[in-house]
């Protein structure tokens, strides 16, 4: 296993990167010469259509020991608790829902075996919507590899560190960071520090991108320079390997007689990357009123309607609150968008009890929600001095489509059947007097 301290990264979101593990492995001046250096195969990996506009076109040329088609036939594989949209196995109620953290398994379980789908929306076959999963694992994948043809994968670690060995290099990711692996990229997950748990958003739609800053200007939010990409690293190893694919909602496995991590060099802008959430430059109000949570958007996958995302990835990190004459927690609201929240560490300011790290909540389209009763009374009467939120890191997957929970999510003992009670003591303060 690689020592994470030895890893190096390329920087710049969406940049055309080039990297080679052997000197001269990248062809000069062309992508597919008649014969590649080191007698490698040229293989293009496209994450968007060939004819996508230049600004949104994503593709990478790889130079590998064998082309990816050097493999055996796929056979079906039991998907366990992994599900794909559309979710039709259970009705989708409008209720507010919340779950405790799912336990880390005690029996040997790798990343794939530990995937559990909590909810999903849209339709993977029409490339709309998302799948929302929890991963738990206590061992690495070894000689088993995986790729997802249904969507790109956004990892949000909550406990434990991940080493992602991908075709294009290795990424080390820990809680407080995120990782994105494009649709179709092969990888395996190893565990350098023991058992892990985290959240996984499977984005069926357009690839995640940085949101526009608008009037904020050239600085603020997530900066391109802070995204990190792997450098080329290859394995020239033969043996018995397995490749698992997620395709049209099902899992399929195929035999390989070599490691699929055999890319000696690559150039392009379709590649895995990671980002440290502590580098997010928070923009917040310095006058009055609580701003919309869209100011905390790290990444967005747009839909065909401008300003209405297939999915936004939004965080609520440590920050200052200084607004005057303002109710500072999120106000009570009903949204056209649907919200799925998770907590990485600390306490979320609108839910001081019952929302634990590793836990989750779902507030669907037009379902009312907001701060619990105790938080409302506390915030309504607080002395409004500048306040630093320190011990907190929550996030939200926000989508234009209704998020349907799986049967597992509806029936698991981890679901808090009494979640609605946190609003049960809301009082009537109205007395007809100003």
UniProtKB/TrEMBL annotation:
Residue ranges annotated for the Homogentisate 1,2-dioxygenase C-terminal domain, each copy included: 279-429
EC number: 1.13.11.5
Involved pathway(s): Amino-acid degradation; L-phenylalanine degradation; acetoacetate and fumarate from L-phenylalanine: step 4/6
Catalyzed reactions: homogentisate + O2 = 4-maleylacetoacetate + H(+)
GO biological process: L-phenylalanine catabolic process; L-tyrosine catabolic process
Gene expressing this chain: hmgA
Lineage summary: Bacteria, Pseudomonadati, Pseudomonadota, Gammaproteobacteria, Cellvibrionales
Cofactor(s) the record lists: Fe cation
Molecular function GO labels: homogentisate 1,2-dioxygenase activity; iron ion binding
Protein's name according to its UniProt entry: Homogentisate 1,2-dioxygenase
Assembly and interaction partners: Hexamer; dimer of trimers.
